[in-house]
Amino acid sequence: xxxxxxxxxxxxNSDLAVNTGRDGAFGWRVAAREIxxxxxxxxxxxGGLALLASAAQPALPDRLDAxxxxxxxxxxxxxxxxxxxxxxxxLIVAGGxxxxxxxxxxxxxxxxxxxxxxxxxxxxxxxxxxxxxxxxLLLAPAxxxxxxSLSI
Length: 152
Prior knowledge:
single chain, mainly alpha, 152 residues
């Protein structure tokens, strides 16, 4: 085996070891590293769409009455407006999660939590708040999987 061929084999084997894990088999960590960014990106995008769609719908009358007994109308309207902004920002940040940007991870996590809070304060929409909270809880431990520590 010539020196050039040996170098090519070593390079091929080292690439293979990096891509398949320590034991040479395609491990779950490698699979999670590859599939996590698109999955979290899509989930974040869907959370943003849910916030925007619920902002376009009128609140349920009984929930709105219960909310107005606890909060003034101005606070509910402000939460409604802020939830719309959070929804739009989630649509934008989803692209950063797809590209594995660390800044997008932190922003998405904060926006998901804020969206859940605003959903409760705008119309007591606990279903939407639960969905956004679940996405945030799934995203929280995934920082190591998402990779690059680049900022937006």
